[in-house]
Design brief:
Elements lengths: L5 E12 L10 E6 L14 E10 L2 E10 L1 E12 L3 H28 L4 H8 L22 H15 L1 H10 L10
Helix pairs in contact: 3-4
Protein name: Purinergic receptor
Family: Belongs to the P2X receptor family.
Main location: membrane
């Protein structure tokens, strides 16, 4: 190497977990030779370069061409360091949930509109209910004083006469609410 020169790579890798402390963060060195060796290639091996120096002596111009051999060191440094952060974790989980929701939507679009058996998937995914075939709701007349529920009942009964399908839907929509909390 000293006679013909060489190109040597020095690689420094820093892989650090900052949760463990800065004392645990130590570099790993590796060395490698990048030039051709003398026995592998006869034409150009090692590391050399030529440079010219121009000078004048009296009235004559001269040039000296020098072929220099030496060591060329190429140093590369790679590093990776990390520390746990709860905010980054929650952001990554939130974006993952969003991507999964988007994936479900895209799969539904593909299955409904681009697959040959999209109609089968549509029947399984969506349930059709005819509101006209539902039984009419039962109404009771009370002589109790007027409450908010009774006003709602009167308002909905006037709607029952005009739109019977609407009345069934209105009563079924509000069946889970407490009395007086109707929409």
């Amino acid at each position: 190497m000293l006679q013909f020169g060489a190109v040597v790579r020095i690689k420094i890798d820093w892989i650090c977990n900052l949760d463990l402390g800065e004392d645990e963060c130590k570099p790993k060195y590796s060395f490698g030779r990048l030039d051709s060796r003398y026995k592998e290639e006869k034409f150009s091996f090692g590391f050399n370069f030529r440079y010219a120096s121009h000078w004048k002596w009296r009235t004559n111009s001269h040039r000296t061409l020098t072929k220099a051999f030496g060591l060329r060191l190429i140093v590369t440094v790679n590093g990776e360091a990390g520390r746990f952060d709860f905010l980054v974790l929650t952001l990554n989980i939130g974006s993952m949930i969003g991507v999964l929701g988007l994936a479900t939507f895209i799969c539904d679009i593909v299955a409904l509109y681009f697959c040959k058996q999209g109609s089968v998937y549509r029947r399984q995914k969506f349930q059709t209910i005819s509101l006209a075939q539902l039984p009419p709701p039962t109404t009771t007349v009370s002589t109790a004083p007027l409450t908010a529920a009774a006003v709602t009942q009167k308002r909905s009964s006037s709607m029952d006469d005009k739109y019977p399908v609407y009345a069934v839907r209105f009563k079924r929509m509000n069946s889970h609410l407490a009395e007086g909390d109707e929409c």
